[in-house]
Every structure is written in structure tokens, then in C-alpha cells.
Amino acid sequence: MLATAVAEARAGLAEGGIPIGAALYDFDGTVLGRGHNRRVQDGDPSAHAETTAFRAAGRRRDYRGTTMVTTLSPCWFCCGLIRQFGIPRVLIGETRTFHGGHDWLAQSGIRIVLLDDAECRTLLREFIAARPALWNEDIGHE
Amino acid sequence: MLATAVAEARAGLAEGGIPIGAALYDFDGTVLGRGHNRRVQDGDPSAHAETTAFRAAGRRRDYRGTTMVTTLSPCWFCCGLIRQFGIPRVLIGETRTFHGGHDWLAQSGIRIVLLDDAECRTLLREFIAARPALWNEDIGHE
């Protein structure tokens, strides 16, 4: 499942965007929605990867059995999404470059799987080194 | 400022949507972005009012001095947005129909102003009475 999120991150990078990718999977391994950060591409500050994947999945009555896969620890915005809609499991590529709200999700009973993936880290770290102001803008840091 | 959010909620209702509206104001009273819930209109489950108003404001380097105005207590998703991007003040039309995460925002140092507005309550309560399944879908309740 992480490979899908990484492919999304790479697609975002190729478009000149921030390389973070995500996908929402159903219990049986079906991809319900996938996407990547689109702040640069769409001028949309709400287009974080997880929210983009969630949007791509369209309307659903419930999120039972789904898994949100993301290349990076989700920020408060995307953690709020996961908690509000009851996505029961989150698979995270890495948490070292950015530590978002996944501990808060774990405390609320959501299952968190941490992978510490080197490819996810390298992709984002190289981008941040090249475009620090853009990264800070994306997470609301001044 | 609440009048802008209420006008957005009414516009959403007129389109057949969920009547929740929001606006992001700058320190000097300028509207940076405004919008309403667009789940029905766009088939977009991420289009909560606050997120729609935030998106409409476009990219910004920081949110110092801004106020998010909304007709309803923000859910976890929209609270996460407010916290992640450092929106320092939230003005809320009512919290009785739905109690989201505004206490959590207050604990993190964000200034919360509660209004208990009858028009906001009536608009949403009448809608929920008429379309309970749609409302439950919008907040991820099964």
C-alpha cells in the first residue's frame, strides 16, 4: 500500500509540487481514492495529500475497514479528517521529517502503523532542502 | 462577520446543500475567503464550510491576525485546519446542534468566541430534521 502513496509523492514532485502522497484503501485492498499534495499545482492550501486522497474517494456513508496510507506523519488538519470520519487505521511512511498528530490519533483508538521508510524520507528531505519556504508555508510555519 | 457566514449557509441551502457557512477574515475586516458546505453540490466530502473558506482564500505565508467565522462549532477536521495553520481566533455561531473540537482549540491557545445565534441553530436544525442521513454522512456518524 505504501508503494501507491510513494508513487503519488513522485507524481507530485514531477509536477513541481511538494512530494507527499496518500491513498485511502478499503478493507479488501481496493484503492478508494489516491492523491498527492497540490498546493503548488492548484494554488490550494487545503490540498494536503491525505485530504486529496479522501476527496478523490468521493462521498461515503462510512469508513469502516478503511486504511489511510501516507508517506508522512499527518498534520493536525489531516489527523482531524481521519478522526472525524472514523478511518480506523493509518499507515505512515515516516515520522522523522515531520511529526504531526499521529500520537493523538493513537490515543483516540485509531490504529497507527509506522514504517520509517527511507525512500519517503529522502524524497521529502531533498525537497525541503531545496524549497524551505514552500515547505514552511505548507505546514503553516512562519 | 457572522452575517457573512450565515449568508453562505443560506446560499448552500438554496443549492440543496447542507446549510453551514464560513468566512476567513483578515485583521482589518477584509474577507480573505468565504464558502459553504459543498458535499451535495460537488460530491466532495472534504468540502466543509471552514475548509471551503480557507481554500477560497488561496495560498498565504501566514495567518496572523485572521479570524475564522463559522455558523457551527467546527468538527475535528476543520479544527485541525485552524490549529495547523495557526488561525488565532474563531468566531462560532452556535455549538448546541453540534459540539465539535472548539474546546481543544481553546486549550491550544486559540481564542474562541461563542455566539449562540438562533438563526444558525434554526437553519441547521430544520435541515437535519428533514435530511438526517445526509447530516450523519457529513460528520462521519453511522
Automatic annotation (TrEMBL), chains A, B:
Domain CMP/dCMP-type deaminase: 1-112
Family annotation (CDD domains): nucleoside_deaminase
PROSITE patterns: CYT_DCMP_DEAMINASES_2
One Pfam family here: dCMP_cyt_deam_1
Protein name, per record: Nucleoside deaminase
Organism lineage string: Bacteria, Bacillati, Actinomycetota, Actinomycetes, Kitasatosporales
Organism, scientific name: Streptomyces chrestomyceticus
